[in-house]
Amino acid sequence: MRSSELTAFGLTRPPFSKEVADQDLWLPTSKERVVDDLVAAVESHAHVLLTGEPGVGKTCVLRALRHRLPQQGFRLTYCHNATLGRRDFYRQICLTLGLAPSATAAAVFYAISSHVEDLANERVHPVFLLDEAHLLHQDVLDHLHVLANYEWDSRALLSLVLVGLPELDTRLAMRRNRSLYSRIHHRVAVDSSSPDDTLEYVRHRLHLAGADREIFTSDAIAFLHETAAGALRDIDRIATAALRDAARRKKKLVERDSVLRVAESRTPPP
């Protein structure tokens, strides 16, 4: 947003930007429970499946997990490129761990496995967070259960957190992936936000941006929630555009007509 648009509402920074610190993240009660479940699962050295539709707040949940997971005793490794073949996938993990990736798939896998065992000897539990996991190649899924298997499957030295769209659960439930799926005892779904969640979320983000008064009318927020279908990513996008619309028209409040105008401008013709 332009500085003039921010000034019009007494804001010091764009309120719905991605650039918000972990400690300033806001999550509704329902998503706080999801974070609690994730933290508890990882602390018990279990594997986790986290699914949800696009934009419902999976990334916010993961950032909250990163912020709340104790730094002592855990090492969180984030892998976001899920479109790689098995060797390159493990090479990516090697690089993220600070290891020098070897040439062959077997050597790369051995380096990761040895590193996990070394961390266990140091009483550090590694957590591999695999984002966009619904895009994982089948040859990676075929092998992930091997990565999670230590000493005849008698030691939980590693936690896998697989994150993706709902179809990830369908893929893992296929007979071919049953060895991996059977090891994932914690399966959590992230739902869309409720109308009250949207209201609190908008107020929280505006407060962080310097707002000392109500900027969106109740009608505007209700229609914003309806238009975005409770998806936080769409709330951010539509609310930003509505702020700009209201500022250009020199409005002191963002009203329903601004949200409606934004929604109509982005609706494809029949």
Could you explain the architecture of this structure?
A 5-stranded parallel β-sheet has the order 2-3-4-1-5, sandwiched between helices. The chain is built from 12 helices and 5 strands. The chain is of the alpha/beta class and 270 residues long. The protein folds into 2 domains: 3-19 and 193-265, Helicase, Ruva Protein, domain 3 (Orthogonal Bundle); 29-190, P-loop containing nucleotide triphosphate hydrolases (Rossmann fold). The two termini are 31 Å apart. The mean pLDDT is 90. The longest helix is centred in the middle third of the chain and has 17 residues, at 105-121. The chain is elongated, with a radius of gyration of 22 Å.
What tags apply to this protein structure?
270 residues, alpha/beta, Helicase, Ruva Protein, domain 3, Rossmann fold, 2 domains, 10% strand
Summarize it.
The protein has 12 helices and 5 strands. It is of the alpha/beta class.
List the helices and strands and how they pair.
Blueprint: H1 3-7, H2 29-43, E1 48-52, H3 58-68, E2 74-79, H4 86-97, H5 105-121, E3 125-130, H6 138-147, E4 159-164, H7 167-172, H8 178-181, E5 186-190, H9 195-208, H10 218-228, H11 232-248, H12 256-265
Parallel strand pairs: 1-4, 1-5, 2-3, 3-4
Helix pairs in contact: 2-3, 4-5, 9-10, 10-11, 10-12, 11-12
